[in-house]
Design brief:
The chain has 35 residues and is mainly α. 89% of the residues lie in helices and 0% in strands.
């Protein structure tokens, strides 16, 4: 599960920092990590 989150984070980084901020605000990454 953590691996999937890491992959998503990396992909977002390549896409743009703005997207990462949006994801963090949504709590998608945090939620996956918590799970």
């Amino acid at each position: 599960m953590v691996k999937e989150g890491n992959v998503k984070a990396i992909k977002q980084l390549e896409d743009g920092k703005e997207i990462i901020l949006h994801m963090f605000t949504t709590g998608d990454i945090f939620g996956e990590l918590a799970v």
